């Protein structure tokens, strides 16, 4: 009895210690006291519960779950359901957490809160939205703002990943978290400018709320703003402002945020900007996407996009085996997804295996008819790249849901025209027009749609262009029937009938409006002064008073003026017949005998550079060195000297140069004999 009493007293003291440590938040010391209590009584339910709570508070979720699973007889699901589900949630065992919550006999408020978080992680957004609405409706405590934030996060996820048009929840955006989530919702709707304004407001609210705390530094504020700045950069990227986006992404990476999910998303976005350029930077950034815990921070679509980009990067860096391995893994995870097979086909094309790539795409189209259209478009592109235009046309015409589309019709007609297969091009027009006729007949009997009439007109113009007027008549009659006031169509119809049935053309021509009814409202002055006018009439100055009368009076006189006679040469003799070859150059005339030889003119400009030829002045004995120099003629350059006829020293031959040269050569020869 005394031992039991002592044990009870010790336990009471330990419980007091546990209570005091719990209030102070010292769960490590509380855990020690709880362990001592369990040594006294190992099946104490309260002590086991306290131990689980202490372990959770210390972050030891795995150990806490171990305690729960070890003492299942004592710690039943009714007693410990929330703690068990929370440990499973924190250990990323989301499916197990959901089962634990659903198996609980009583759904407490704590379990409902956790249930909402679990549904969000499982991306069951509709159920999650309903859970948070119920919580907000039935709860009144200090956590109401957090619940509204979570609710707005669910709406943002629906808008982003499921493209659901969100309903207005009437949430007052008083915090930066609510403002940020609202911006994400707008991004999902494609309202990028509005989203950017919301993010700027969120940044302002974040700075205001954090600056109120004196313990928060500027670095802490920038770290908190990192996710907002990352979303801003994403909007810039979507708007095509890639340089600004890249700069902001790199600034965030330099801050080294602790959120591995944020870093992975930013690294992925930088890789998408780099594409096949700057691959070394992309290979560095891809390491950030492989960080531990990333898979628990991002949605399935985000993780899938990262894996796709890894495969593309492997292709761009010529890692063919790695590219095939990644794309095959992606295809096994999502067999119906297009991108893995497209990446595999692109890799085969880089290896010049076009036929194999087309075969791969064809197999996928056969296995997944729902996605066959996009795959066949890629197959047609590959055939065109190989020069097989006709085969590409056959593939495109096999896409039934696109045969009637104007873009498809235009592409097929252009390709068939390039191959000079006019019959096939006309057949494409005919099939598309028939589709619209059948589709319209099954709905209403009203006027034909604009697309239908446009196709008929294009078909008629195409047939007329290629000389198929007989075939164009039915299309033109249909167009004229729809709009009898269309003069252009009527003129085309008459032109076509003129070669087939002239009488019919005459009958139809009666429907053409008369020339009197046609009023051509053309401003001649504006037309002449237009940018494309080849002739522009000079603008005459305004005439007033007498000048105007004179101008009018002289109008008749100006018209009667004759042209002036051409001027005759001064030596013209009317008695002499003009030379009939006077218009020909002298060298081409029949009487030209060439220049006479022997008469040398002054060789002006001939000789070595910088010298002038010697004239008669050199032979004049009176002009010797002893005679005084003559003064320069008026108007001549003052810098010209009396010795201007002398050849410059550089070009002047020294006297007796030939003889000297011979002597030098003889000396060299004599010296050469002795030298060799």
UniProtKB/TrEMBL annotation:
Single Gene Ontology BP annotation: SRP-dependent cotranslational protein targeting to membrane
InterPro entries, per the entry: Signal_recog_part_SRP72_RNA-bd, SRP72, SRP72_TPR-like, TPR-like_helical_dom_sf, TPR_rpt
Biased composition (Low complexity): 605-639
Gene it is expressed from: Srp72
Record localization: Cytoplasm; Endoplasmic reticulum
GO molecular function: 7S RNA binding; ribosome binding
Domain Signal recognition particle SRP72 subunit RNA-binding: 538-594
Described purpose of this protein according to its UniProt entry: Component of the signal recognition particle (SRP) complex, a ribonucleoprotein complex that mediates the cotranslational targeting of secretory and membrane proteins to the endoplasmic reticulum (ER). The SRP complex interacts with the signal sequence in nascent secretory and membrane proteins and directs them to the membrane of the ER. The SRP complex targets the ribosome-nascent chain complex to the SRP receptor (SR), which is anchored in the ER, where SR compaction and GTPase rearrangement drive cotranslational protein translocation into the ER.
Keywords: Acetylation, Coiled coil, Cytoplasm, Endoplasmic reticulum, Isopeptide bond, Phosphoprotein, Repeat, Ribonucleoprotein, Signal recognition particle, TPR repeat, Ubl conjugation
Organism whose genome encodes this protein: Prunella himalayana
Descriptive protein name: Signal recognition particle subunit SRP72
Signal peptide segment: none
Segments forming a coiled coil: 94-149
């Amino acid at each position: 009895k005394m031992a039991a009493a002592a044990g009870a007293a010790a336990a009471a003291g330990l419980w007091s210690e546990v209570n005091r440590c719990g209030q102070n938040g010292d769960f490590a010391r509380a855990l020690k006291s709880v362990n001592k209590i369990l040594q006294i009584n190992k099946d104490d339910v309260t002590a086991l519960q306290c131990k689980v709570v202490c372990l959770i508070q210390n972050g030891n979720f795995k150990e806490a779950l171990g305690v729960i699973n070890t003492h299942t007889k004592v710690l039943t699901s009714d007693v410990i359901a929330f703690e068990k589900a929370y440990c499973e949630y924190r250990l990323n065992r989301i499916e197990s957490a959901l089962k634990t919550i659903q198996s609980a006999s009583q759904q407490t408020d704590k379990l409902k809160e956790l249930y909402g978080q679990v549904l969000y992680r499982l991306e069951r957004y509709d159920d999650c939205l309903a859970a948070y609405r119920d919580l907000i409706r039935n709860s009144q405590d200090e956590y109401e703002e957090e619940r509204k934030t979570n609710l707005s996060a669910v709406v943002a996820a629906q808008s982003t990943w499921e493209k659901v048009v969100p309903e207005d929840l009437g949430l007052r955006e008083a915090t930066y978290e609510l403002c940020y989530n609202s911006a994400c919702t707008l991004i999902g709707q494609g309202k990028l400018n509005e989203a950017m304004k919301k993010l700027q407001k969120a940044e302002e609210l974040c700075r205001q709320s954090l600056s109120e705390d004196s313990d928060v530094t500027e670095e802490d504020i920038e770290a908190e703003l990192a996710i907002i700045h990352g979303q801003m950069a994403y909007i810039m990227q979507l708007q095509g402002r890639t340089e600004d986006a890249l700069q902001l992404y790199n600034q965030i990476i330099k801050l080294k945020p602790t959120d591995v999910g944020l870093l992975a998303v930013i690294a992925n976005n930088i890789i998408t900007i780099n594409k096949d350029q700057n691959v070394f930077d992309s290979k560095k950034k891809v390491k950030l996407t492989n960080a531990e815990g990333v898979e628990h921070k991002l949605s399935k679509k985000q993780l899938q996009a990262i894996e796709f980009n890894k495969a593309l990067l492997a292709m761009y860096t010529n890692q063919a085996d790695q590219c095939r391995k990644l794309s095959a893994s992606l295809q096994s995870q999502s067999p119906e997804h297009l991108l893995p097979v497209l990446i595999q086909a692109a890799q085969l094309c880089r290896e010049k295996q076009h036929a194999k790539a087309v075969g791969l795409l064809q197999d996928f189209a056969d296995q997944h008819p729902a996605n066959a259209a996009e795959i066949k478009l890629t197959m047609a592109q590959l055939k065109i790249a190989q020069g097989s235009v006709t085969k590409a046309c056959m593939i495109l015409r096999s896409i039934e849901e696109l045969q009637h589309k104007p873009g498809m019709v235009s592409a097929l007609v252009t390709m068939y025209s390039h191959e000079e297969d006019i019959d096939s091009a006309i057949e494409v027009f005919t099939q598309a027009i028939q589709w619209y006729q059948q589709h319209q007949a099954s709905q209403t009997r009203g006027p034909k749609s604009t697309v239908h009439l446009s196709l008929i007109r294009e078909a008629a113009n195409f047939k007329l262009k290629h000389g198929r007027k007989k075939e164009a008549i039915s299309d033109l009659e249909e167009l004229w029937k729809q709009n009898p006031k269309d003069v252009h169509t009527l003129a085309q119809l008459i032109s076509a009938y003129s070669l087939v049935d002239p009488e019919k053309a005459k009958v139809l021509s009666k429907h053409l409006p008369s020339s009197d009814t046609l009023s051509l409202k053309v401003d001649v002055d504006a037309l002449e002064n237009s940018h494309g006018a080849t002739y522009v009439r000079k603008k005459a100055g305004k005439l007033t008073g007498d000048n105007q009368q004179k101008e009018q009076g002289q109008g008749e006189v100006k018209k009667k003026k004759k042209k002036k006679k051409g001027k005759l040469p001064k030596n013209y003799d009317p008695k002499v017949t003009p030379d009939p070859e006077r218009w020909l150059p002298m060298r081409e005339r029949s009487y030209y005998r060439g220049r006479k030889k022997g008469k040398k003119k002054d060789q002006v400009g001939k000789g070595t550079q910088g010298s002038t030829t010697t004239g008669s002045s050199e032979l004049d004995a009176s002009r010797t060195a002893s005679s005084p120099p003559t003064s320069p003629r008026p108007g001549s350059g003052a810098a010209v000297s009396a010795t201007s006829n002398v050849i410059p020293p550089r070009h002047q031959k020294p006297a007796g140069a030939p003889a000297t040269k011979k002597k030098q050569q003889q000396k060299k020869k004599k010296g050469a004999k002795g030298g060799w």
